[in-house]
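Whiteboard transcription, Tuesday session. T.W. wrote the structure tokens on the left side:
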């Protein structure tokens, strides 16, 4: 039996943040706990001005004896994720208010935890995506969201591979929806900054695809394993990792390159992905990610071991050929 949970309200547009009061009245929500990072506190304060609530930093201890009615997450990727997890653990409803289009967790039932891999929570009850706020966000956050959207290409190819070889459940509708998000942002790579709604809608659709599939499969394949591997190594060796979607974007180049070698289909697809990432100023190689040659080779070797997920990595001897693969798709020289 499938149990699909989707957001009930999705508000996208300039000034959408001011719809919070109306939404809370409509859904009968009161007394929110509002998670916000330092840079996004001014937006949390706007929310607080419209509906009374308590603003907290996601890294602080939260008072247990207050009866909060629901949770709002106001911020970029990690604030939304932490708020989502807190809401889930405390059986509270959750409203997602992204201030950047930096990843596809803005409306999905999945949240990333430290160390990389995602955990299943609930879908937000409502999503408020204010395109004015989101288009004013730092450019690298938008470029990161673009990388996360484009990663759906290889996630879907990996999912098909798992269907064919491991008899894994595959949902045509979720896969098509996810693929279409990547297709649309790729076709509009030169317009992303002038019309942010293209990317916001792609990330929302990508979230919905995960909710429909009941797994992160439509939007997370080998390219995500690679990103998670970098996260793990960055903790081990204490280097600064790049943004989630930036890492996934480079991972998508690698995975598309491997899929092409394996299937002899979609010739030059990885180069088109690379060009599109360049159009938005996203990193396309180890140097631009700020990761050393040694660390990126180790990350690729580690990627297939991050979790038990059948992907294109299983069709290659990654341990042996990591360096050659990275050179082949120009991620290292
Ligand atoms: Zn992602």
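and on the right, the sequence the group agreed on:
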């Amino acid at each position: 039996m499938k149990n699909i949970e989707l957001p009930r309200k999705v508000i996208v547009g300039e000034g959408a943040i001011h719809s919070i009061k109306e939404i809370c009245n409509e859904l009968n929500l009161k007394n929110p706990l509002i998670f916000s990072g330092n840079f996004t506190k001014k937006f949390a304060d706007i929310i607080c001005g419209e509906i009374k609530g308590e603003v907290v930093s996601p890294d602080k201890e939260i008072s247990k004896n207050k009866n909060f009615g629901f949770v709002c997450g106001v911020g970029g990727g990690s604030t939304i994720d932490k708020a989502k997890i807190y809401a889930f653990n405390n059986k509270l409803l959750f409203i997602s208010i992204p201030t950047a289009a930096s990843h596809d967790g803005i409306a999905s039932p999945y949240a990333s935890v430290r160390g990389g891999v995602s955990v299943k929570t609930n879908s937000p009850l409502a999503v408020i995506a204010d395109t004015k706020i989101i288009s004013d966000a730092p450019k690298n956050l938008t470029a990161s969201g673009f990388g996360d959207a484009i990663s759906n290409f290889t996630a879907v190819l990996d999912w098909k591979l798992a269907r064919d070889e491991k008899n894994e459940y595959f949902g045509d509708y979720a896969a098509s929806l996810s693929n279409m998000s990547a297709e649309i942002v790729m076709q509009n790579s030169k317009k992303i900054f002038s019309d942010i709604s293209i990317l916001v809608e792609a990330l929302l659709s990508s979230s919905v695809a995960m909710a429909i599939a009941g797994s992160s499969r439509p939007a997370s394949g080998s390219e995500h394993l690679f990103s998670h591997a970098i996260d793990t190594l960055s903790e081990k060796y204490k280097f600064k990792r790049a943004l989630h979607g930036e890492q996934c974007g480079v991972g998508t180049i690698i995975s598309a390159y491997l899929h092409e070698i394996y299937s002899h289909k979609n010739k030059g697809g990885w180069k088109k992905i690379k060009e599109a990432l360049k159009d938005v100023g996203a990193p396309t190689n180890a140097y631009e990610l700020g990761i050393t040659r040694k660390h990126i080779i180790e990350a690729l070797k580690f990627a297939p071991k991050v979790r038990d997920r059948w992907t294109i990595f299983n069709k290659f001897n990654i341990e042996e050929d990591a360096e050659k693969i990275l050179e082949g798709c120009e991620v290292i020289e």
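Someone added at the bottom: The two ends are 49 Å apart (CA to CA).
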